Amino acid sequence: MAPAALLLTRVAAATVAVACVLSLGAMAQLSPTFYDASCPNLQTIVRSGMAAAVQQEPRMGASILRLFFHDCFVQGCDASILLDDVPGSFVGEKNAGPNANSVLGYDVINNIKTAVEANCPGIVSCADIVALAVRDGVNLLGGPTWNVSLGRRASTTASQSQANSDLPSPASSLTTLIAVFANKGLSATDMTALSGAHSIGFAQCKNYRSHIYNDTNINKQFVNTLRSNCSATPGASDTNLAPLDTTTQLTFDNAYFGNLVKKKGLLHLEQELFNGGSQDALVQQYSTSPTLFASDFVTAMIKMGNISPLTGTAGQIRANCGKVN
Ligand code: HEM
Ligand SMILES: *[C@@H]1O[C@H](CO)[C@@H](O)[C@H](O)[C@H]1NC(C)=O
Ligand SMILES: *[C@@H]1O[C@H](CO)[C@@H](O)[C@H](O)[C@H]1NC(C)=O
Ligand SMILES: *[C@@H]1O[C@H](CO)[C@@H](O)[C@H](O)[C@H]1NC(C)=O
């Protein structure tokens, strides 16, 4: 080979090597354009799937938002929460204490996954479908929108024990809440902004009973209304629902923070955020500034969505969100 041609070959080889390293590096990063070439209709399909689900049952916007939180806090945002238990061989997260008979919306994600597979089979992870569906659910209920970084892959494992240990209980103190979120790299501000997710959706009596019967930092009239549908003793009323946001229950807005200022938090943990402690000033600000709340909520959602993603060749693209390939 002539020296010039050899040199060119070497330059080309070096360029290919550099390009490979760059693309490996890029693969480890989530990006909003990740599926632009491989599944250009993805965002339209997810949006219309969520629009149909929310039209049929507005609560689904809230349920998918909670599902995402409970996924991301356990092994990262890897769709581990979607894996079904297989008796005798696989223990998933669906039956962990905070999830069992409480997290809803699995069918909504499975239906969207089916629609996505019909359009671009084997390309899009269940973890990314959830991240997009959450954004659309919030937005369809009147909340902000944001660009979702993509490229998360789905786990081949789940951890019921981590779901039991790492998800916060509604009886948590402010100190515990701050620590539980710090454990996932989220600040107290992120935690307070994210709690604004309780602007939509419902809780069962068993989760607010102790707050309405044993706590004193609660509005008297509000307590009386709630007690009429949630008896002091466990029993038939355990699963009765009350809206988390007593003023604008299925609209994603900042009214939840106004409720806290009026001591109308439904759950113990919520009122902990406005009870003479470090988050009082922020709760007060969110209650008067919808734009500050929306902007901090979006920032914190993006941070939560970036917890320990599986990227590159880690994990897999499941054919069915409920089971490992
Ligand atoms: C700060 C700690 C948190 C605790 C202790 C907590 C606890 C709870 C509890 C006990 C319920 C009611 C569940 C039931 O009765 O079945 C609930 C509902 C809900 N949570 Fe949280 N939560 C927290 C933070 C979050 C975060 C960070 C998000 C999302 C960003 C979120 C989203 C929701 C939503 C949307 C609902 C209503 C779900 C539905 O109606 O299906 N929560 N939460
Ligand atoms: C999403 O990204 C595009 C392109 O960078 C940008 O023009 C747009 O404003 C972003 N949208 C939001 C809601 O941040
Ligand atoms: C209230 O607190 C007492 C004492 O801790 C406890 O025995 C009781 O079960 C609590 N009641 C409710 C409704 O949580
Ligand atoms: C009482 O609980 C039922 C069952 O969850 C619910 O449908 C109803 O809206 C609740 N009533 C009030 C006044 O909150």
Q: Care to describe what's here?
A:
By secondary structure, this protein is mainly α. It has 14 helices and two strands, in the order H-H-H-H-H-H-H-H-E-H-H-E-H-H-H-H. It has a two-stranded antiparallel ribbon. Helix 2 packs antiparallel against helix 4. The longest helix is centred in the first third of the chain and has 25 residues. 42% of the residues are buried. The N terminus is likely disordered. The chain binds protoporphyrin IX containing FE (HEM) and 2-acetamido-2-deoxy-beta-D-glucopyranose (3 copies). The site of one 2-acetamido-2-deoxy-beta-D-glucopyranose has 4 residues, from strand 2. Keywords: Calcium, Disulfide bond, Glycoprotein, Heme, Hydrogen peroxide, Iron, Metal-binding, Oxidoreductase, Peroxidase, Secreted, Signal. Its EC number is 1.11.1.7.
Low-confidence stretches: 1-27
Spatial sequence of strands, sheet with the most strands: 1-2
Bound molecules: protoporphyrin IX containing FE, 2-acetamido-2-deoxy-beta-D-glucopyranose
Oligomer: single chain
List the total number of helices. 14
CATH class type of the largest domain? Mainly Alpha
Q: Which fold name fills CATH's third level, the topology of the largest domain? A: Peroxidase, domain 1
Radius of gyration: 22 Å
Mean pLDDT: 93
Terminal residue distance? 49 Å
The assigned CATH architecture of the largest domain is: Orthogonal Bundle
Structural class designation: mainly alpha
Q: Name the shape in a single word.
A: globular
Total domain units: 2
N-to-C order of helices and strands: HHHHHHHHEHHEHHHH
Proportion of residues in extended strands: under 5%
Please provide the count of β strands: 2
Function: Removal of H(2)O(2), oxidation of toxic reductants, biosynthesis and degradation of lignin, suberization, auxin catabolism, response to environmental stresses such as wounding, pathogen attack and oxidative stress.
Binding site for substrate: 168
Keywords: Calcium, Disulfide bond, Glycoprotein, Heme, Hydrogen peroxide, Iron, Metal-binding, Oxidoreductase, Peroxidase, Secreted, Signal
Binding site for Ca(2+) 1: 71, 74, 76, 78, 80, 93
